[in-house]
Amino acid sequence: SCPYNKPDFWHHRLVDAQNVISPGPVHSFMREMDIFFGYGKVLEGVPRAGSMGLLLFGLSGIVILTFTLRYTFAKRKKLPAPVAEPAVPVEAVTPAISRKEKPARVPVLGKSLTVGLRYLAYVALVVAFVVGMTSEGKDYESMVRAKFKGQKLTKVNDDPVVFHLGEKGDGPGNYVLIQEGQGYGGPFVLGIRIMEDAKVHEVIPLDHKETPAFVRKIQDAHYRDQFVGKHVADDFIVDVDIDAVSGATITTMAATEAIRKGAHLAAVEKFKLEQKWKKV
């Protein structure tokens, strides 16, 4: 009879705490490391290049720091004791004696090891740069193809990314507009299916790095069906024309924001409509 002995009691307390505490950099970093080492969900079409780049940058930073310390803490050779000046005219002293010799440095690391670390640092920086550049673009096409197998897919726009489904001129226009959002535990990718009637016909979760318990809320048909049939110029505001979902407030609000942004982009750029919706 004691409520503390019921599993649901602690589950709901945990969900409440996660909704109150916004994700910080440490939380996001730990999720990224989980995904990199294979404990999290591996995204379809999204390489782990972000984590690899972070790891390579860290490695190159350690190597460069070691190389810098080699000079900072190098020991200096002791200069020989001063020798009494010879009893000769100053003019007879050679210029080599009049110049002060700089103290030599004794390398802490071996010469070959130092050179190797230097080249390793350069290579790590170059590889990290290349990996970072190649990881910028996500493979949205593979994500959409996985959901619409057997249908012809044509990319018709880059910003925002829009795909046309089926043959051009074959029936009404059938488009999938790609939008991303930031949930509680990580980003997610949605496809918004819009027809020539300027209405939303489907919301398709394509990929995510979100906490599984939260992403299930936006994958639920009850949440996604709220958008079906809505005009692209509608407001799409939580608690106004869209119902909130308890237990995943941050994630569902982020998903609604992504859908609203995509629909309004289609309203302006595709259907050439004037803005009449409420600003959030």
Automatic annotation (TrEMBL):
<keyword id="KW-1133">Transmembrane helix</keyword>
<keyword id="KW-0288">FMN</keyword>
<dbReference type="InterPro" id="IPR010209">
    <property type="entry name" value="Ion_transpt_RnfG/RsxG"/>
</dbReference>
<dbReference type="GO" id="GO:0009055">
    <property type="term" value="F:electron transfer activity"/>
</dbReference>
<dbReference type="Pfam" id="PF04205">
    <property type="entry name" value="FMN_bind"/>
</dbReference>
<keyword id="KW-0285">Flavoprotein</keyword>
<feature type="transmembrane region" description="Helical">
    <location>
        <begin position="119"/>
        <end position="135"/>
    </location>
</feature>
<keyword id="KW-0597">Phosphoprotein</keyword>
<keyword id="KW-0812">Transmembrane</keyword>
<keyword id="KW-0249">Electron transport</keyword>
<dbReference type="GO" id="GO:0022900">
    <property type="term" value="P:electron transport chain"/>
</dbReference>
<dbReference type="GO" id="GO:0010181">
    <property type="term" value="F:FMN binding"/>
</dbReference>
<feature type="transmembrane region" description="Helical">
    <location>
        <begin position="49"/>
        <end position="69"/>
    </location>
</feature>
<feature type="domain" description="FMN-binding">
    <location>
        <begin position="183"/>
        <end position="266"/>
    </location>
</feature>
<keyword id="KW-0813">Transport</keyword>
<dbReference type="InterPro" id="IPR007329">
    <property type="entry name" value="FMN-bd"/>
</dbReference>
<protein>
    <recommendedName>
        <fullName>FMN-binding domain-containing protein</fullName>
    </recommendedName>
</protein>
<dbReference type="GO" id="GO:0005886">
    <property type="term" value="C:plasma membrane"/>
</dbReference>
<keyword id="KW-0472">Membrane</keyword>
